[in-house]
């Protein structure tokens, strides 16, 4: 069992920055691949970034490359998503997820947090 809790979502104006945090518990955090997903109103949930257990490898979808950075601090059992140059189309509920077997954009993620709302205004 893995428990994940996201925090940091809020209203921010276009062009601004925001850092999301995901706190994990219940399993050795350093053994887990981690990903950030988002779901906009009326759309399916999709991955935006992922990171290997050690943090050495990261992956991003094209729409966020150069703007978002995923990182982790295994000593604190926490993964982060730094979001810069935010656009209204980034508005979504953002979810943290953990994978037992992989860490890429196409890996299966087994455990999920409850999400945190990010709203970007024009």
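Sequence proposed for the structure above (122 residues):
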């Amino acid at each position: 069992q893995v428990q994940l809790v996201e925090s940091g979502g809020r209203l921010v104006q276009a062009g601004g920055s925001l850092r999301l945090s995901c706190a994990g518990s219940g399993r050795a955090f350093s053994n887990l691949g981690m990903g950030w997903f988002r779901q906009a109103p009326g759309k399916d949930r999709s991955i935006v970034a992922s990171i290997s257990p050690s943090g050495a490898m990261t992956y991003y979808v094209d729409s966020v490359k150069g703007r978002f950075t995923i990182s982790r601090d295994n000593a604190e059992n926490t993964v982060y998503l730094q979001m810069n140059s935010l656009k209204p189309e980034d508005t979504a509920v953002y979810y943290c997820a953990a994978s037992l077997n992989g860490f890429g954009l196409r890996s299966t993620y087994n455990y999920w947090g409850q999400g945190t709302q990010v709203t970007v205004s024009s």
